[in-house]
Hints:
Layout lengths: L5 H4 L40 H14 L20 H7 L2 H4 L11 H18 L3 E3 L5 H18 L6 E5 L5 H8 L3 E5 L9 H7 L4 E6 L12 H10 L3 E6 L11 H4 L3 E4 L19 E3 L11 E5 L2 E5 L16 H37 L15 E4 L10 H10 L6 E2 L8 E4 L7 H20 L1 H6 L11 H12 L16
The structure holds pyridoxal-5'-phosphate (PLP).
The site of pyridoxal-5'-phosphate has 14 residues, from helix 6.
Amino acid sequence: MSEPLSFELSRPGAEPPRLPAPGLSAAPSADVLPKEHLRVKPADLPRLSEAEIMRHYSRLASLNYSISEQFYPLGSCTMKYNPVANEAAAALPGFAGLHPYQDEETVQGALELMWRLERALCAVVGVDRVTLQPAAGAHGEWTALRMIQAYHHSRGDKRTEVLVPDSAHGTNPASAALSGFQVVEVRSGRDGRISLSDLESKLSPRVAALMLTNPNTLGLFEREILDVAEMVHATGAMLYYDGANLNAFMGVCRPGDMGFDAVHMNLHKTFTTPHGGGGPGAGPVGVKAELVPFLPHPTVEKADGHFKLDFRRPKSIGRVRSFYGNFGMLVRAYTYVLAMGGDGLTQASKDAVLSANYLRKQVDGVLEIPHHGPCMHEFVATAHNLASQGVRALDVAKGLLDRDFYAPTIYFPLVVPEAIMVEPTETESKATLDAFAEALKEIVQEAKTNPAALHQAPRNTPVGRLDEVGTARRITAYLTGQSEEPVLRWKRAGK
Ligand SMILES: *Cc1c(COP(=O)(O)O)cnc(C)c1O
């Protein structure tokens, strides 16, 4: 690392930043906090001047790789540009300064925004109501499954299984298991789409729901979705749509119209709110009428031009998150929807599909692409053909880092060996896509002429190739009591 830790930079004599007095009459005492929680001596914090702190963090930030600087083709993550207008709206004092315990009368604007965002999302996915509470996609899946469970229970129907295709995102089986369901895998056919015959064999009165991603994680549209919906509904089960990646569909077609009963959406993917380290997520869930009574409470209701929170929902599965969801993200997503308009969202999806198909054509022949035909918003290639040179998908990914691109998703979906999953999104230019394809060509050339060099990549990043296998081995050895604690944190010398 080229930047030392703040503890290493610490200077005992440094003049700390000047802050206003805290306005507390005394330090916390035993009648406020139990004695065992009170500090005996001051925390051993690093000591730096304000300018030094500022520069330290600015330098650290400059080591980061971010969507505001570079191309980020991380498949299944929809790393599109996060408009600055979203940030400006979320920073408006009327939104940023809200307190969740404020009286309903004083937050009418915030409630109206939530009400309007719910209507907009209902229109995009074709459902009757949406809850904005879930804090991420996986949380949305879990929320929807709890509603589906409550629905079946309310009918005296004890269903114990959830069907999940083998190409599904790992959160799908995890959410089903956490909701207390038994997960049953449905196989994909040769064309990368769900196998109807395998689905048929797994459907039974025990099945509560089928979780499906469409376009699936291979970037392929499930063409037989209407048949799938009919088969699932005929057994009394529900159809769940993993809409984390809705980017191919906005204004083009709607899960609700395909027969899905519940759907989650990732605002931090399709609706341009920041991702990962950039901010908390938001995974609203939309449902058809049959599931509406089970929505988490409170819901936002409108009556006589007045907005209110409705807690009186006897069949509700209850709250799934403190307060009302990641409200700042709701402001950002609503700003995006308003700025784009219906036409803009439709165009975004069309452009996302166009970008993915253009890049797929550029990459085809450089890397193998196992599934033929047009893709939706992303495509999956494989580094399988480089195995004879001893080069793996991981090496290709590291080679891209050296060429100043973020790496695509690798080793997912599991149904493709040495998978490289690319999602360019609509916010990238043709020039960027061409440069990326060119970099891939260069890497594949290097794999053939000098594979050893590729094994050393990345060399131009702040941190080089990590020893992932060695790390896993050392941690396992530590956990099984066979070795010392691995160095996972900084310790002051002598401690
Ligand atoms: C990202 C993603 C999820 C999970 O979303 P999180 O917000 O990361 O929990 C689920 N399914 C698919 C297909 C995804 O791409």
